[in-house]
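Module 6 notes. Inverse folding takes a fixed backbone as the condition and produces residue identities as the prediction. Think of it as a translation problem where the source language is geometry and the target language is the twenty amino acids. Below is one complete input and output pair. Work through it position by position during the lab.
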């Protein structure tokens, strides 16, 4: 079969579930993953013949996607911060907005490791609490709570050499995926990331690797009552454990993060969490009332309150 025909027919099949533009974009991404084609190959090479042996995988993929299964579970990968992460049912598919949390954390860590480095551009960007007159540190430690696929943990460890990251999650399935990640640049950072099975709601007295310079967290934050507005492929395929928090206590996980931060951050340590865009003030109040300082809300690319950062007093 010719590539343009497959794109046409596959896109049309997916239009039962997705708007036409999105359906087409999903088919192009599928082809890119399975055939290694570019988003324009069918235009510049209209006579591109799909190799016979690839067709069963492509047909199978389309029929799974027509049932509502996300493309990322079908192909087993999702790009995040420039790397391809393995994903599987049982683990949340990393979202683009979470890349901003990683950008904030890596910028903070770079300043920590090299306080005299080039000045940081922008107004809303997190600042290094050590200030510009302190000596550089050679390594930094990060605790990534609710680590899931390990997308935050791996991205920070590989983007900021000298950083050691511990990822924590309650799901054995998620941790199996997090541990299975392989990246071309990971060989240069052996042991930079490790994962621990642990319920974050149970704050231990001691934790290996503590105290940490930075805490990151992307906890479940969607209230059960928000389910009605969500797409079927998220509700039916992604793990509820990764998504939802009870309506009657949406701050449950943030109180736990605040607790871990007070107990396991170094004095002057810094943290950043992803939040429900409708609960910015409530989330900031959780960290303030726990005794954390410099509590700030940050917007995502769509102008929504998506992150809260904080510091532990020196
Ligand atoms: C929103 S997902 C975040 C995954 C990943 N960090 C990301 O940004 O894509 C939340 C994660 O929290 C985990 N989780 C839910 N309840 C937990 C708990 N009580 N303790 C630890 N992890 C929990 C889920 O298994 C899931 O992997």
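Target side of the pair, the amino acids:
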């Amino acid at each position: 079969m010719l590539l343009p025909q497959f794109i046409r027919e596959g896109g049309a099949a997916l239009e039962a579930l997705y708007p036409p533009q999105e359906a087409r974009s999903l088919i192009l991404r599928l082809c890119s993953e399975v055939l290694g084609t570019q988003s324009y190959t069918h235009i510049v090479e209209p006579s591109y013949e799909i190799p016979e042996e690839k067709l069963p995988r492509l047909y199978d993929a389309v029929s799974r996607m027509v049932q509502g299964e996300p493309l990322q579970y079908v192909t087993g990968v999702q790009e995040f911060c420039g790397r391809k992460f393995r994903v599987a049912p049982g683990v949340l598919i990393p979202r683009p907005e979470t890349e901003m949390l990683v950008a904030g954390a890596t910028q903070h860590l770079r300043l920590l490791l090299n306080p005299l480095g080039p000045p940081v551009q922008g107004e809303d960007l997190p600042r290094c609490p050590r200030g510009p007159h302190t000596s550089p540190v050679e390594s930094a430690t990060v605790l990534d709570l609710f680590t899931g696929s390990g997308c935050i943990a791996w991205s920070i460890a590989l983007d900021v050499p000298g950083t050691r990251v511990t990822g924590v999650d309650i799901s054995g399935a998620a941790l199996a995926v997090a541990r299975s990640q392989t990246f071309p640049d990971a060989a240069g950072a052996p042991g930079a990331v490790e994962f621990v099975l642990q319920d974050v709601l149970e704050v231990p007295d001691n934790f290996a690797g503590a105290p940490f310079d930075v805490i990151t967290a992307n906890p479940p934050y969607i209230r059960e009552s928000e389910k009605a507005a969500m797409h079927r492929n998220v509700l039916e395929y992604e793990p509820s454990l990764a998504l939802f928090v009870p309506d009657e206590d949406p701050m449950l996980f943030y109180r736990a993060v605040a607790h871990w931060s007070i107990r396991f951050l170094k004095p002057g340590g810094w943290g950043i969490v992803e939040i429900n865009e409708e609960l910015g003030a409530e989330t900031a109040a959780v960290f303030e009332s726990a005794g954390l300082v410099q509590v700030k809300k940050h917007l995502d690319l769509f102008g929504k309150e998506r992150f809260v950062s904080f510091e532990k007093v020196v």
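Reference fact for the lab report: Residues 3-67 form one domain.
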